[in-house]
Specification:
78% of the residues lie in helices and 0% in strands. It has 312 residues and is an all-alpha fold. It is globular, with a radius of gyration of 19 Å. Helix 4 runs antiparallel to helix 11, helix 7 packs antiparallel against helix 14 and helix 8 runs parallel beside helix 14.
């Protein structure tokens, strides 16, 4: 009896440590309570994201880019959702809620960056259309080569990021993982990876989330009051905007999978890139919007997961 109980406990713990929501919450909590290791594992963030992208794009058929007609709509919608809808919303709400110039600069940078690379694996988590998300994300990154410098000149008066930097991100986090996923499929390695794909993806995200939160631990502990206007905008640009996008897209008769993809493209920015640019070219204060938004992104994705389970 005792042996059976121990076995049941072990199975429950194993299931818990494979649960995406638990792992994301754990990363958030440890990042806030024990941030000391974040500096040491910071170099692992880019490889972890690349690994996640490789595993996520394994399920995308290689024929997807062969038909120009098939990619025109998701390509256009990727740019529309992330730049026209989300960037405009971020800038509009920051005009209303933000007074400090440095924080305003942070929101301009946030509006200028392309979508989170995590849009594609999050699409898989939430049962969305991976092809739509992949094409839409790629389109937005290519558009960023032009949009980011123009927004910098228009709002900040300086060219804070060279197009070559964006091109490097596209190659490292989208093109290379996609090519690697084709090689894995060609070599038929996917059958060995598939049983552990979810766990590898979840714990890779643990590394990313813990590092981002841990590196910005002092902001949450020492300056909580300064976060209020930033938090309001982060909530509005995810939870509220996401509901609005979902309502409009369903009125336009998109199916549930594509609706999920468009909601993610229209609510998530590359907060890591925005935070890095803010720290490199401005100040810690300017990095606040990206830092706080990262935390709310985690909460938002967990909420979307619960919402999906409730609706099925």
């Amino acid at each position: 009896m005792r042996c059976q109980k121990s076995k049941h406990t072990l199975m429950s713990l194993t299931k818990l440590f494979r649960n995406r929501d638990f792992i994301l919450c754990l990363a958030l909590c440890i990042g806030l309570l024990a941030p000391q290791v974040a500096q040491l594992i910071q170099p692992l963030v880019l490889p972890a994201l690349a690994l996640v992208m490789t595993l996520s794009t394994m399920g995308v058929p290689g024929s997807v880019f062969r038909s120009p007609r098939a990619i025109v709509i998701p390509f256009s919608l990727g740019i529309l959702m992330n730049y026209v809808v989300l960037s405009s919303f971020i800038l509009a709400t920051s005009v209303v809620f933000v007074v400090e110039k440095e924080i305003w600069n942070g929101f301009v940078i946030l509006a200028a960056v392309p979508p989170a690379v995590a849009v594609i694996p999050f699409t898989e988590f939430l049962g969305g259309d991976k092809v739509y998300s992949l094409i839409g994300t790629t389109a937005a990154y290519l558009a960023a080569l032009i949009i980011m410098p123009l927004m910098a000149l228009g709002f900040l008066g300086s060219n804070f990021l060279q197009p070559m930097d964006i091109l490097i991100i596209v190659i490292a986090l989208i093109i290379t993982p996609f090519v690697l996923s084709r090689i894995l499929l060609w070599r038929r390695v996917d059958r060995f990876i598939e049983p552990v794909k979810g766990s590898i993806t979840n714990w890779s995200f643990f590394v990313v989330v813990y590092t981002i939160v841990g590196l910005n631990h002092d902001v949450f502990v020492n300056r909580p009051l300064s976060l209020a206007p930033v938090a309001i905008i982060a909530v509005l640009s995810t939870f509220l905007l996401g509901l609005i996008i979902e309502w409009i897209v369903r009125k336009l008769h998109f199916d549930k999978k594509r609706t999920t993809s468009l909601v993610l493209l229209g609510t998530l920015k590359n907060y890591g890139l925005a935070g890095g640019i803010s720290l490199a070219f401005f100040s810690k204060q300017t990095a606040l919007p990206a830092t706080v938004s990262t935390v709310f992104m985690i909460v938002y994705v967990i909420w979307l997961g619960f919402k999906r389970r409730w609706s099925t």
